[in-house]
Amino acid sequence: MIAVPYRKLVVVALLGAALVGCNNEADPNSPEGKRQALFKLMIKQSEPMGGMLSDRLPFAGPAFAEHAKQLAELADQPWAYFPKPGEEPEPNRAKADIWSDPEGFELAINNFKSSVADLTAATQGGVRGPGQVADQLHAVQQACKACHDDYRR
């Protein structure tokens, strides 16, 4: 199982990245605004799960499973709002690599979606304790972190 301080660091890093996006005043009807809104919804699902595993929140198996289900429902959505190769992007916090490495970015997206699917599968039939889902949530957090490290300023 993952050490609690490391999980706290990952959660804090993800929240910090999300909050940085909050300061960006994108038009809510623009692709950038829609993408930001979806990522904020993802944080609203993943943050409580991280809180339950780090003991910041009491662990509740049914609530954890519901957050995982909601995250899975969101996992496919934001990617449609990224510009396609050759399209001019709106101002954003993406590194240039996101546009010059579409295959790598697609691989990162697929890794995230696969990790979310594994997390959701681990919650099927109920969540009895943190040990049942800790590795899967860590994989989701790592997928987020890896994508941000490679493709976000």
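The above is record 1. Record 2 follows with the same two-line structure.
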Amino acid sequence: MIKENQQLLNRLNALSDGLIIFLMIPVSFWLRYQVLPNASVNMSLRNYMIIGFFYTILQIVIFFAVGVYRPFRHARLRRKLSEILVAFLIGLVLLLSWLSLRHMDNYSRQMIFLWFGLSFLLLSIKRIVLIRLMWHFRGKGYNLKHVVLVGSGAMAQQYLEKIETEISMGYHPLGYISEEEADLDIPWLGGFENLEAVLEREKPDEVIYLTTFDERMRTRVFLRF
């Protein structure tokens, strides 16, 4: 199930982001001092790499805090890119403030802006590619999120129509729970009293509530997930 692998995927995503950010330091250094004109080296690449290593860790922490590593399934591409931009701006302000407070004026601000610009560009391209790939694979029936519906009324029908038209979201309904069988194109899994047994048997990634439901049972299900 997806929920069992999400944590590992998030760690790999964060690790690759950190690697990209760190590797952009020597690239930015080369562009600043070898490509751009009128550039004199005031600080060695080694010093940039040292400060960049610790800062890369801080930037990944900021990414987690801002919500960059939330699942892509519901996210619009523009929103994901804006989250990355906000996180980078926070990181840039923190780094420049720290350098100013420490009077470390030998570090080229132009080189730092190049570093942030390249990092943001590559991480944005990475997100675009990942989201497009996920949309493609979900349309082919892979990486699906298995859900159980609770309810069988008009809201349930609307929900099923929505996930059928938006295949890229990757939702697969295993069935629905309701007091009686309804005219839905997915299996009826029994009444409300069978919900916990159904969850144990089907092991869905998510439960979608589309009806009023006993609060005690809802709480027990939430604790289970």
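The chain is about 65% helix and 10% strand.
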